TrEMBL record, chain A:
Gene3D superfamilies: Glutaconate Coenzyme A-transferase (3.40.1080.10). Keywords: Transferase. It comes from Muriicola marianensis. SUPFAM superfamilies: NagB/RpiA/CoA transferase-like. GO terms for molecular function: transferase activity. PROSITE patterns: COA_TRANSF_1 (PS01273). It holds the Pfam family CoA_trans. This is Succinyl-CoA--3-ketoacid-CoA transferase. SMART domains: CoA_trans (SM00882).
From TrEMBL, chain B:
It holds the Pfam family CoA_trans. It comes from the Bacteria. The keyword ATP-binding does not apply. Belongs to the 3-oxoacid CoA-transferase subunit B family. Keywords: Transferase. This is Succinyl-CoA--3-ketoacid-CoA transferase.
Length: 233, 217
């Protein structure tokens, strides 16, 4: 067993500097690395490029970093539900690269898997493909997309062990597994941190080899964006 | 003329036994409410769930179980969770049988625009570009005209495209149409709606062959 446990967010984020490119897991506010984001706010690092499917809401998730003007460039597939984001984007303070969701996931996975680039049909014939190499395979057109290059990857899992093995819960899994091992250093935060041997190897979603640092998040707010329910008859 | 539920009801008839279906946000989400109960269908949501069920009962919502619209949901027996790359492997790899999504504009060559209004609204494409570029079977659910009364079925899209030549079928509040060589082929009229009304509301070339039946919903 190679131990990956670090004391907490401060140690986990050691080495994060201005101008770095960060990957952050989560879909909307579901499965976001809440504790790493709080630490990024505390550190006050700026000029960040953030790769994350969404940009949080005004007062939570990556919205907290936007409030403090710590993000220079955002790479996302969907950025609605965030007024401050829209304001910064329209005023030109924030650079935004909108990427189809499946392409974003695959650009992470390609980095994880050691592929420099891949062809995808998504975005062909649209402004997303402008200036990009295209190629025909079996009569269909594809766009060449490159793997991301990032300094840190911040992911959130449900359970993890000291060896860095991870298990995710529900749809909080989303981009988190694809971002593990896709940056130079992957930092995983978990709700439950267990001794090695506590997790059944058959049930591990991400092996510890993809994770350099793991810590137990102090608390999780897990804010719900759209609380939809039905009533009992 | 159909309301949103009417459009969803008509589209539900296109869902066949054994289909894996991806539903977009808005009217498409409603389709799940009208699928026949005697067939086996699984709903996929691109954030990473197959086998989506109805909204949870009050007090049972789980922040870790949502759909692509960020709504709290439940799962049905046989459901599974997976990561975003695998989710789009299902979509890009054409394992999903039917994609139902909304649109701002559709052109007679099958082009679709639904993610951006320059200078006004830029929320992003989410998974829409992957879905339309990959799916074999795409149904667009939308109103026939926009709030200004202008046709959304055009010769050419005016808004930034989401995908090219990909839409096969459109169900609106007025009609069911198929995208064929040369334009929109009118298949069915909504109850009480005349062919003339549909023609007036369609800017793109409308192909009318023989008597056009009224929808059965």
């Amino acid at each position: 067993m190679i131990p990956k446990t670090v004391g907490g967010p401060a140690e986990a984020l050691d080495g994060v500097k201005d101008g770095m490119t960060l990957m952050l897991g989560g879909f909307g506010l579901c499965g976001i690395p809440e504790n790493a984001i709080a630490e990024l706010v505390r550190l006050g690092v700026k000029d960040l490029t953030c790769i994350s499917n969404n940009a949080g809401v005004d007062d939570f998730g990556l919205g907290l970093l936007l409030q403090k003007h710590q993000i220079k460039k955002m790479i996302s597939s969907y950025v609605g539900e965030n007024d401050e984001f829209e304001r910064q984007m329209l005023s030109g303070e924030l650079e935004v690269e909108l990427t189809p969701q499946g392409t974003l996931a695959e650009k992470c996975r390609a980095a994880q898997a050691g592929f420099p680039a891949f062809y995808t049909p998504a975005g062909f014939g649209t402004e997303v493909a402008e200036g990009k190499e295209t190629r025909e395979f079996n009569g269909k057109m594809y766009v060449l997309e490159y793997a991301y290059k990032a300094d840190f990857s911040f992911v959130k899992a449900w359970k993890g062990d000291e060896a860095g093995n991870l298990i995710f819960k529900g749809t909080a899994r989303n981009f988190n597994p694809c971002m593990c091992g896709a940056a130079k250093i992957t930092v995983a935060e978990v709700e439950e941190l267990l001794p090695a041997g506590s997790l059944d190897p058959n049930e591990i979603h991400i092996p510890g080899i993809f994770v350099q640092r793991i810590f137990k998040g102090e608390k999780y707010e897990k804010r719900i964006e759209q609380r939809t329910v039905r009533t009992r008859n | 003329m159909l309301d949103k539920n009417g459009i969803a009801k008509r589209i539900a008839k296109e869902v066949r036994d054994g289909f894996y279906v991806n539903l977009g946000i808005g009217i498409p989400t409603l389709v799940a409410n009208f699928v026949r109960s005697d067939i086996h269908v699984e709903f996929q949501s691109e954030n990473g769930v197959l086998g989506m069920g109805p909204f949870p009962f009050e007090g049972e919502e789980d922040a870790d179980i949502i759909n692509a619209g960020k709504q709290t949901i439940t799962t049905l027996p046989g459901a599974s969770f997976f990561d975003s790359a695998l989710s789009f492997s299902m979509i890009r790899g054409q394992h999903v049988d039917l994609t139902i999504l909304g649109a701002m504009e559709v052109a007679e060559n099958g082009d679709i625009a639904n993610w951006k209004i320059p200078g006004k609204m830029v929320k992003g494409m989410g998974g829409a570009m992957d879905l339309v570029a990959s799916a074999e079977n795409i149904i667009v659910a939308m109103t026939h005209t926009n709030k200004a009364g202008e046709s959304k079925l055009l010769k050419r899209c005016t808004l930034p495209l989401t995908g090219v030549g990909c839409v096969k079928k459109i169900v609106t509040n007025l009609a069911v149409l198929e995208v064929v060589e040369g334009g929109f082929k009118l298949l069915e009229r909504a109850p009480g709606v005349s062919v003339e009304t549909i023609a007036e509301a369609t800017e793109g070339n409308l192909i009318i062959e023989g008597d056009i039946p009224e929808m059965v919903i």
